[in-house]
Amino acid sequence: MARTSRLLSLLQILRGKRRPVTAAVLAAELAVSERTLYRDIAELVAQGAPIQGEAGIGYILRPGLFLPPLMLSEDETEAIVLGLRYVEQRGDDTLGRAARDALAKIEAVLPPAAQEIARNPVALPGPSHRSFPDNRVAIEVFRSAIRAQAKLRIDYGDLNGQATTRVIWPIAIGFMNEARMLAAWCELRQDFRHFRTDRIAAASEIGERYPGRRSQLVKSWRAAMDEIAKR
């Protein structure tokens, strides 16, 4: 493997690790000696890669602004473009703009051949779908509450038009083909519930964070959905 390719591969491996990984493990994955691995680590650090660690303990890639040129396969490029185009079509205005901006940034650092694939992909997301019911509460209200782990008080009308006021712990927004759904823990029902955003008449934070971590709630919600799917 050429050194440039090996350095990019090393960065990719480190990106996928959540905990420090030893030089022996990294060297084995790259099929090089530990001595070569140490030289590669030193070279990446000199180039600005935010790698933290030391010999005998392990290395981890810290969050940072270092971004080498993207080396994506044709299939990887297709997958990224398809996903971003789908978000552009079916996401809310904020996500639509973010998808366009992200695609422009990715295209800017791709080599010429990959740029052509990105601009004229084989896989397309299908016709634009813009017939979502209108929301009375902006999606940004839900997104902000999710990020802050804030409890929301909502006025909700069900399929039969029956209105209820509930306190919920919002954890995710689902972008379906016909509607958008807010996944949340409902204090009234003491269970996970899904609320169509177009049926939420009002929503406001009550000034409380919900307990625990959102990541754990999402894990529990997924487990609950898996159990329902098995029935």
Describe the structure in your own words.
It is a single chain. This protein has helices at 3-15, 23-30, 34-46, 74-90, 93-108, 112-119, 139-148, 214-230; strands at residues 51-54, 58-61, 150-157, 163-175, 180-186, 191-196, 200-209. It is globular and about 70 Å long. 44% of the residues lie in helices and 23% in strands. It folds into three domains: 3-61, Arc Repressor Mutant, subunit A (Orthogonal Bundle); 74-119, no CATH class; 139-230, SH3 type barrels (Roll). Helix 2 (23-30) crosses helix 3 (34-46) and helix 4 (74-90) packs antiparallel against helix 5. It has 231 residues and is of the alpha+beta class. The longest helix has 17 residues, at 74-90. The mean pLDDT is 87. It contains eight helices and seven strands, in the order H-H-H-E-E-H-H-H-H-E-E-E-E-E-H. It has a five-stranded antiparallel β-sheet. The protein has a two-stranded antiparallel sheet with strand order 1-2. Pfam families: HTH_11, WYL. Residues 139-203 form the WYL domain. Residues 6-60 form the Helix-turn-helix type domain. This is Transcriptional regulator.
